[in-house]
Amino acid sequence: MATNFNNGDSLFNFVVKDGNGVKGLVDLGLTEVPCRYIQPPHHRINNQQVAGSLENVTIDLSELDGPNHDQVVRSIVHASETLGFFQVVNHGVPLKLLDSLKLAAHEFFGQPAEKKLVYLNGVSPSPLVKYGTSFVPYIEKVLEWKDYISMTYTNDADAHEFWPNDLTEVALEYIKTSSEMVQKLLQTLIGNLGVKVDDSRFHELTGRTLVNMNFYPPCPNPDLTVGVGRHSDAGMLTVLLQDGIGGLYVKKGESADSPGDDEVWIEIPPVHGALVINIGDALQILSNGRYISAEHRVRTTDIESRVSVPIFNAPLPEAKIGPFAEVVARDGVARYKEVTFEEYTKSYLKKTLDGKKSLEFASVI
């Protein structure tokens, strides 16, 4: 049965339309990757391009309120200006909760397909919950080796009504226990730009929250596939929980705009108890390019299933994002135009993942 999935229509219907996802393929005993998942060579993760790991960029956030405050701020700013990624420990999110999140993700995706189909993208009774596979499978020529469920937070009542019952409590606690950390990090980064924003504006820039659970089943040919293609996140700041398997890579520097042998990718290694933080496009735009929303992508593995749990902290749809006036005055030029975040995300979601090309929508130079 699995060999028939080299017929594009039958595979697409099984994986996407019928909601079986990549997990469904693996459960059939797949021994080789169907053609629809084989990435062109320039999109694969080449071992020769990987330059070690980012072991030294782990920041102890408990010191942000202590005598080492200035040093911690410098570390956060430097990482945001040079790579767009760093890891944090002593962040205020209970370590027991992190273990519970990983377990909940495995249990959700381990359910029979009919249990997950309730939330299938296009079928789900609520726009707050979306279960699916890959990124935008209806326009992608090559699919990603990933299934996911996405839950938008509006308030606790909506979460309890619409989110999957077995994920609600753990996901809500993850959002709530990380919110103070997110606020501190964003206030630190915005303040470092010499910008002051009032509570109303800060809420505009951070008021939309989504929590995803991503599932990467073992892949029979990991060198031919990707879990997530090269991209930057659209929002302000992403908080990511990795499991212990690894596979997250970030591109070092922005000088190479097209794929090539000169690219260097750095692994963001799993650190027990740590959360990965990365800068999003909206913050790059607001900072007039000072902070970097670095490209990142995810490798597949043939060892065992991998999960990750990101929280995307983003502006409200109607919020206007453009370079802060104070930064433009200092730089002497605005590198981005002002757009609403809704306009930006509509453009972002129209395309397949392709590095940082999403930023072209707001770029003026």
List keywords for this structure.
Jelly Rolls, globular, dioxygenase, 19% strand, 5-stranded mixed sheet, EC 1.14.11.61
DSSP E strands, number: 15
Major sheet description: 8 strands, mixed
How much of the sequence is in beta strands?
15-25%
What's the CATH first level? Mainly Beta
Averaged pLDDT: 91
| Residue runs with pLDDT of under 50 for 5 or more positions | 255-260
The CATH topology is Jelly Rolls
CATH architecture assignment = Sandwich
| Distinct helical segment count | 11
At the fourth level of CATH, the homologous superfamily is B-lactam Antibiotic, Isopenicillin N Synthase, Chain
Structural class: alpha+beta
Radius of gyration: 20 Å
Number of domains: 1
- Overall morphology: globular
**In percent, how helical is the residue content?**
25-40%
- The H/E string reads HHEEHEHHEEHHHEEEEEEHEEEHEH
Distance between the amino and carboxyl termini: 52 Å
**Biggest β-sheet: strands ordered side by side in the sheet:** 2-3-11-8-13-6-5-4
Pfam family, one: DIOX_N
GO molecular function: 2-oxoglutarate-dependent dioxygenase activity; metal ion binding
InterPro entries: DIOX_N, IPNS-like_FE2OG_OXY, IPNS-like_sf, Oxoglu/Fe-dep_dioxygenase_dom
EC number: 1.14.11.61
Write the layout of secondary structure elements.
Blueprint: H1 8-17, H2 21-27, E1 50-53, E2 58-60, H3 69-82, E3 85-89, H4 95-109, H5 113-117, E4 129-133, E5 147-153, H6 156-162, H7 165-192, H8 199-206, E6 208-216, E7 228-231, E8 237-242, E9 248-251, E10 265-267, E11 275-279, H9 281-286, E12 296-298, E13 306-314, E14 320-321, H10 325-331, E15 339-340, H11 341-349
Parallel strand pairs: 1-10, 2-3
Antiparallel strand pairs: 3-11, 4-5, 5-6, 6-13, 7-12, 8-11, 8-13, 9-10, 9-12, 14-15
Helix pairs in contact: 3-7, 4-7, 6-7
